[in-house]
């Protein structure tokens, strides 16, 4: 079963790289499989009869420890993650590469600058007010 999942992830990665071209570095398995799952939810919402959702969001947990400057030590206690968010309108046809790039962009927003905002006096409070605090 695990071998089949690895093969599926490799095929999804190849499909994503076809959409981005040779200049783009390969996508991670996590990103391509997440985009595949997200595309299944979008397809399900599009086929739904009656009232359809207008927007579908994908949320992804991102380890904040290694993205801060300076990095938190590996032996630090507790969980420290942020949620990366990607959204797509349901009614618009999106190709697989678009979904991969939306997830990747959401994850890339969790960077050192984002970590600095968290460390400011009211940084975390402001993120919670915006709905971005986990």
UniProtKB/TrEMBL annotation:
<dbReference type="Pfam" id="PF02458">
    <property type="entry name" value="Transferase"/>
</dbReference>
<dbReference type="InterPro" id="IPR023213">
    <property type="entry name" value="CAT-like_dom_sf"/>
</dbReference>
<comment type="similarity">
    <text>Belongs to the plant acyltransferase family.</text>
</comment>
<dbReference type="GO" id="GO:0016746">
    <property type="term" value="F:acyltransferase activity"/>
</dbReference>
<protein>
    <submittedName>
        <fullName>Uncharacterized protein</fullName>
    </submittedName>
</protein>
<keyword id="KW-0808">Transferase</keyword>
<keyword id="KW-0012">Acyltransferase</keyword>
């Amino acid at each position: 079963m695990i071998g089949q999942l690895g093969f599926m992830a490799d095929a999804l990665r190849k499909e994503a790289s076809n959409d981005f071209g040779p200049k783009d570095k390969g996508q991670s398995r996590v990103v391509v499989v997440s985009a595949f799952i997200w595309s299944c939810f979008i397809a399900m919402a599009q086929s739904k009869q009656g009232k359809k959702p207008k927007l579908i969001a994908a949320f992804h947990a991102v380890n904040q420890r290694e993205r801060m400057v300076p990095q938190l030590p590996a032996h630090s206690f507790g969980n420290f993650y942020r949620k990366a968010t990607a959204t797509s309108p349901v009614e618009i046809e999106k190709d697989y590469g678009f979904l991969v790039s939306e997830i990747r962009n959401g994850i890339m927003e969790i960077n050192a600058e984002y970590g600095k905002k968290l460390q400011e006096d009211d940084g975390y409070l402001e993120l919670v007010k915006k709905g971005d605090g986990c």
